[in-house]
Design a protein that fits this description.
It is a single chain. This protein has about 180 residues and is of the alpha+beta class. The protein has two domains: about 5-40; about 45-140, Arc Repressor Mutant, subunit A (Orthogonal Bundle). It has helices at about 45-65, 70-80, 85-95, 100-110, 130-140, 145-150, 155-180, and strands spanning about 5-10, 20-25, 85, 115-120, 120-130. The strands form two sheets. Strands 3-5-4 form a three-stranded antiparallel sheet. Strands 1-2 form a two-stranded antiparallel sheet. Helix 1 crosses helix 6 (about 145-150). The longest helix is centred in the C-terminal third of the chain and has 24 residues, at about 155-180. The chain starts with a strand and ends with a helix.
């Protein structure tokens, strides 16, 4: 019959988990055991992942009346902010590769929100611009950020603090990725 013993485990010095953790060791009849020292609830990545999915669902609900997905809305934000830009610029701002971006922009064009044309000065470059309908849509979605902020349950100060922490974390992760 297996027995369960509790042992204390400590994360690596300077590692992400510096507090003591409990690991459960289960001894089986053959004398093998398994030590679990990494729990889902202790991971930084999981609440970020789950929150991102929850935000995407909240945006989907708010954007559905306009026939937009969350990522389409983000692409339109770039165009409302910058005007006509190259496809590469939209991809850079959204951190999307062309394999993801091209179908997204095709759908926006099909739905009448944007145009895609070859740059007359450089045929290799595709320019994306808002149609009149796409430009007018900006006024119709003005309440989206406020509705999402309200759905988050955070006050303005908490939103600003969270955004600053996320931007700091993203910058650190980018720096680490670029170094290694």
């Amino acid at each position: 019959m297996p027995t369960t013993t509790t042992v204390r485990a400590v994360g690596p010095p300077g590692g992400p988990c510096v507090r003591d953790r409990i690991a459960h060791v289960r001894t089986r009849s053959r004398g093998t055991f398994r030590v679990v020292v990494i729990a889902l609830d202790e991971q930084l990545c999981f609440p970020l992942y789950a929150t991102s999915r929850a935000f995407t669902r909240a945006y989907a609900e708010v954007l559905a009346p306009f026939g937009l997905t969350y990522v389409q809305y983000l692409a339109l934000l770039v165009l409302w902010e910058e005007g006509e830009v190259g496809v590469g610029r939209v991809g850079e701002r959204l951190e999307l590769d062309s394999g993801t971006l091209t179908p997204l922009l095709r759908r926006l064009q099909r739905d009448g929100w944007v145009t895609r044309t070859r740059d007359p000065e450089d045929e290799r470059r595709v320019l994306v611009a808002l149609t009149d309908e796409g430009a007018a849509l900006e006024a119709r979605v003005q309440d989206v950020p406020g509705r999402i902020r309200a759905a988050s349950g955070l006050d303005d100060g908490e939103v600003d603090e969270l955004k600053a922490l996320l931007e700091q974390t993203l910058a650190a992760l980018r720096d680490r990725t670029e170094e290694g």
